[in-house]
Design goal:
Length: 726
Amino acid sequence: MFASIIIEYNAQKLDKTFTYKIPTELEQKIKIGMKVYVPFRNQKIIGFVIDIMKNIENQDYEIKEVIKIEDEKLVLNTELMEVGKYLSEITMCSLITAYQTMLPNSLKIKKQKHNYELLEEYLSIKDLNKAKEYIKLYKKRTKQIEILNEIIKKGRISKKGISSTNIKQLIENNIIKIEQEKKYRINVENNNLVIKKLTDEQKSAYEKVNFSNYKTYLLYGITGSGKTEVYINLIKRSLELGKTAIMLVPEIGLTTQIAKRFYEAFGSNVAILHSSLSSGERYDEYIKIMNGEVKIVVGTRSAIFAPLKNLGIIIIDEEDSPSYKQDNNPRYHARDIAIFRGKYNNIPVLLGSATPSLESKARADKSVYQLLKLDKRVGNAKLPIIHIVDMEKEIKKKNTIFSDLLKEKIWEKINKKEQIILLLNRRGFSTFITCSNCGYVYKCPNCDITLTYHKSSNNLICHYCGYQKRKDGKCPICHEESLNYYGLGTEKLEEKIRELFPSIRVIRMDQDTTRNKGMHEKIINDFKNEKYDLLLGTQMISKGLDFEKVSLVGVLNADTSLNMPDFKSSENSFSLLNQVAGRAGRSKILGEVVIQTYNPDNYVIKCVQNNSYDNFYLHEMQFRKRLKYPPYYYLISLKIIGKDYDKTIEYAKKTKRFLESNINKETIVLGPTTAAVFRYNNEFRMQIIIKYKKDNELMNTLKNLKNIFININECYLEIDFNPIKV
């Protein structure tokens, strides 16, 4: 027998399978989807078994033998093998890269295998008669007698904390034995399962989802309308049908609250997958899923590849979130993989959001997706009152950070013992530092963009490549103590809040404060338990969080995302502002929102104030149609990247000429221009944008272009289908 194996060895140039002979002793063990060791050139490397054949035609190279199976427990099932092929096709990545992407870090191909299994050791009686005899003969050996009596009484005891000297003789005399049992690091037991009764509106949406065939549904529900309870009831229905379910959330911070609610509803039948788990935890959760020990997976983007068998439904919460698009190779969108798996399993896929992406809403309008709506908040809660503050007028009153209205509202809510959320979508202390004496500005040496100052660590950090340097008090050029700090980040805002409102208890939630394990959960729980009055954070606090006592949301610098040079800036701004506004007044307390902006008449701000997604959608769709952007046109972004400035520009121009000679005339090619960040990590980046509706030649042209770049050493090509920003 023979195996067709794809290996990880210069994946871009060797994106093909190789045939190996299966040794007789492995013929009954080896399966498609397994990782195996094989010889390749002068190395022993790991690959995936793609196919198994009884016979092969003559090969033009020597047929070598598979050395061994790397892990018999890890097998990508038939569905996931097909998902890998699909992922490779839609992103033009190598097949081995696609399969690697689908696995957690602990199970990816590595030179050395690491055993992540956690085994707990127990002591039990091996020979009861010997144990009783020992107790009679050696009464003075108090500690050993205590251990034996406890084992006899309980059946077995944990070895943890027991000195080996006290049990060594008992083991050697075959009186007791050590038993090992696999232990999961995350193990939630809950026998008091709570599934809430649906409102009439929620029930109507729930009943429209058909489990007998594939269909994509768009659940458009305003903030606080109870989408999560619809999800839970749909998953309960899937379990009743003997099937499983995947539930995706966009942010790790949201996983905490969603996971808690799912544990309440389904107990230990839930596995969690996200990047904040340790390698051991991710290994445990993946093995649980693979072994069929759980029926529900809750996680972030990569959880879409969970190896669940017999899938019954896939749900993507906050489906408009940019987090579902991976920004490095392979650049897939979780929604595309969900729809592929939905079709493969002939099951429903549900996309949910209070601010659906324009592409999804347009598909719903054309009946490609079925639209479900939730127009009312649960428990008759009212939508918040939204105040817009013109900061141009506030600046004249010397209010640079807090408007008079926001300060007044903060004191009002504190006096009522209510809670506050403040959004500033920029972390750090100051966005840039300059010298007033010589004009020097601190910039990243790798990316040529300004460094952000983080006061808590006294570091200047590049938020693109991660470069860091310590800040001293003098300008590095003129050596004068004349540094000025400009821009506002969450760290600086926290300091200003403590100055202005010294009695208020403040907690900050951003990438800096949640780096350590468990901090997302701790901050959320502490705020929910009213240990703090005010939660300050970046966009990670804008979605999915539900706090009964929050009656005020304040947005500082609402124009930050609005002014980004990107075709989705208006959509992203509307979503962010609408979602964060929805954190206020989610129970019996009436909510208020204060949005501080320099563009109070902007249509995005007006639509947010009026809670009008529909008006925003109609306005934005007209703009997209005129400028030939999605959903009216498809987009492809090509980045030509190289270390040499002139060579990068030269190859970018050649790329454009190649495209124009090999695609339809109706297809639009824009560029080359410098990318948003022209120099990133010491590489120059040129960008070409392709807009098209239908082009039968385009995919073959891009494949040929990719093959050309494989043999170019000076530059390389990045292809991004349907980019979320250009």
